[in-house]
Amino acid sequence: MSGPVQPVDAAVEQGPLARIDVREGRATTVGGVPISRVLPTKGRRTVGPWCFVDLILPPDFEDPHPLEVGPHPHTGLATVTWLLEGEALHTDSLGSEQPIRPGQLNLMSAGNGIAHAELGTTQGIHGVQMWLAQPEETRHGDSRFEHVAELPVIGFPTGEATVMIGEIAGHRSPAVVDWGTVGLDVDLRGRRIEIPSEPGYEHAVIPIDHALKVDEAIVEPGWLALIPVGVEAIPIETSSDRARFLVVGGEPLGEPIEMWWNFVARSKDEITEAWRSWQAHDLDRFGPVSSRLSRIDAPAPPWLGEG
Ligand code: MN
Question: Rounded to the nearest whole angstrom, what is the distance from the C-alpha of residue 2 to the centroid of ligand 1?
């Protein structure tokens, strides 16, 4: 899944959060698939290293739109693919060819540059595509791809949580990330749950199928509740008896990032350079991808003006 970041998403970063803050998602499409763009959002580009969250909406099984995202590049970020329904095939310029099903994790770190394609292999896909901004130490480095077929699941009195990335209550995901990060998929079976959280991390709660009350804030599916650092547990309630939601978080990045299209960097010049490499078919930076889908051309960065 591609998830090009558009100018409307390029929020001006505000200072650290002082309290829980709720933001609506923005309805759009990626490769024809309807999504809710959860992050970046108004005034906020990052939650820990998480800099992009697209919630793919449940498929219309009468008329499912196929997921077909042809070869496209990334820099400076790791893509996190997490499906809720359906199956997809990931191929990339490292030579990876990996099917993914619900409960499994695909983690692809771009470093200086990678290209990949994603093809739905079932009718209709429901899931989430997320990016982690890579820190300075790794964002210019080698790319890598990891598929994790089995992840730890923690039982709670009222549900369970799958640890996609990071650690909670002594349960650690084997996925290798290069910054303090957590990502949980929570299946609440009851009215209330309390998720332990690392006080040094900032967090976001993203409801998938039912509205939640996060502390005192009401959050609808496809929205997010931003939670500042200093919290040791996140209290969550629902008025339904079952709710699925994500909790993502991490150590604050501590530096502003630039995002445009499929690139994450620290300056517009770096993004322009990546854009030129992709448009020039620079195979040293963005290698060939095995896919029957067409390569996706990048639009011109808006700061370069027309033509
Ligand atoms: Mn992509």
Answer: 4
Partners of 28 in beta bridges: 35
How far away, in angstroms, is 263 Cα from ligand 1 center? 10
pTM, two decimal places: 0.93
Give the count of beta carbons closer than 10 Å to the beta carbon of residue 62.
6
How does strand 153-156 pair with strand 144-148?
unpaired
Look-up: residue for tokens 């896909």?
125
Distance 192 CA to ligand 1 centre (A): 35
The span from the CA of 295 to the CA of 117, in Å, is 9
Residue 179 near residue 132 (C-beta atoms within 8 A): yes
H or E element: which one contains 273?
Answer: helix 268-279
For residue 33, give the 3-state DSSP assignment: strand
**Radius of gyration, alpha carbons of the chain:** 18
Domain 19-250: CATH superfamily, name plus number: Jelly Rolls (2.60.120.10)
pLDDT, one tens digit per residue, over 134-173 is 999 999 999 999 999 999 999 999 999 999 999 999 999 9
Domain boundaries, the chain: 19-250
